[in-house]
Amino acid sequence: MSAPSATALDRIPGWFWPADQRLFGWFLSADAPGDLLELGAYLGKSAVLIGDHLRPGETFTVCDLFESEAPDAANEAETTGSYSTLTRQRFEQNYLSVHDSLPEIVHGPTSVILNHVKADSCRFVHVDASHLYAHVKEDVLAARTVLRGDGIAAFDDYRSEHTPGVALAVWEAVAGLGLSPICVSSQKLYATWGDPVPVQRRLLAWLAATPELWHTTDILGERELVRINQRKKPPAPDGELSELGRLSAELRRTAADLKKTAAESRTTVQALKTATKEIGLVGPVVHRAVRWTRRRLTRR
Asked: pTM score, two decimals?
C-alpha cells in the first residue's frame, strides 16, 4: 500500500507536523518486526500514517477513550475541555477514508492496554493520550512493557508549556528507567529502551540525504541527542548554487545603485528647497525696487 498523501492527512484534524510525519515513516520502515500501538488517537491523523506501515502478520492497536467517561475527575475535565469533538465514529470514518480496514480498537482508558497487548510484542509505540502526570507515567510504563528490546517509543508534547506532566513523566523515565532518547522534534521525543547509538547512526545518514529536514546533534553528558525540524525552504541543488550566487551579487549591486541614486536625489531636492527659499526671500525686495524706480521715472 502506498503512503497516505499529504492531502489525505491534511483533511484529518489534528496536530501532526510534517517533520514528525517524515520521522514516523522512517522509524516505521525499519526492518525490525513487531506490532504497532498508539495510545491516544484523537481523530486518526497519526493512526492513518502508522497503519500504512502495518505488515502481514502484525497487529496495529489503537487505544482511546473517545467519547466515553474518563476514569477520574481530572481526566474528565481534560477530555471535556480539549477533546469535546472526539468520537469513535469520526475516528473510524477518517481511518477508513484511507485504509480498507480498521485497526484493533481498545475503547477505554490507556490503563487497560496491558490486557490487550502482549509484553515484548511491539516495535513502535506512539504515546499521545492524557497530559496528566499520573496517567502519562502509566503510559510510559506500559510502553516499556509492550516494546521489544529495540523498539521505538514516540512521546508527544514532551516540552509544551501546557503539558508539564508529560515532560516530567518522560524525563523521569530517561533519568531513572533506562529510556534513551534518540532524537527530538518540536513536538515529539523518540526514544528506546535498547541501544540508541546504531539507530542514531542510521538516522543521521538518512538525514544527510533528506534536505527537507534540518538537524543538529547536542551532547548531553554521556548522551547524544539529535534535534530535527522541517526546513522553511529546502536548500538549492548544487547545480543551482552558482546561479543563485550570481543573482545575489546582481541584487546587491542593484541595491547599492538604488541607494546611491536615492542619496543623490535627496541632495538635489535639498538644493531645490534652498533655492526656492532664497527666491522667496529676494522676491519682495525686487518688487519694492521696481516700484520705487517706476515712481522716480513718473515724477520726471
From this structure: 0.73
For residue 208 the three cell numbers come to 544527510
C-alpha 82/C-alpha 79 separation (Å) is 5
The percentage of the chain sitting over the pLDDT mark of 90, rounded to a whole number, equals: 62
Looking up cell 502481514 gives: 56
Q: Are 19 and 26 in contact (CB under 8 A)?
A: no
**Beta-carbon contacts of residue 230 (< 8 Å; ≥ 6 apart):** 17, 18, 19, 22, 212, 213, 214
Higher-confidence residue of 5 and 168: namely: 168
The amino acid sitting at 210 is T
Average pLDDT over residues 230-255: 70
> Which pLDDT score is estimated for 1?
46
CA-nearest of 5, 72, 14, 10 to 40 is 14
Tell me how far apart the 2 most distant CA atoms of the chain are, in Å.
128
Q: Please give the C-alpha separations between residue 237 and each of 108, 130, 208, 234, 247, in angstroms, as whole numbers.
A: 49, 43, 14, 9, 15
Question: Is the predicted pLDDT of residue 16 greater than 50, yes or no?
Answer: yes
Residue located via cell numbers 541527542? 225
pLDDT category of residue 79 using cuts at 50, 70 and 90: low
According to the 3-state scheme, what is the secondary structure of 3-39? CCCHHHHHCCCCCCCHHHHHHHHHHHCCCCCCEEEEE
For the stretch 64-77, what's the b/e string if a residue is b when 16 or more beta carbons lie within 10 angstroms of its beta carbon?
bbbeeebbeeebee
Q: How far is CA 80 from CA 70, 76, 180, in A?
A: 9, 6, 34
Would you give the distance in Å from CA 19 to the centre of its chain?
A: 6
Instruction: Give whole-number Cα distances, 242 to 121, 197, 233, in Å.
Output: 52, 37, 18
pLDDT digit string (tens) for 24-35? 999 999 999 999
DSSP 8-state assignment for residue 103: -
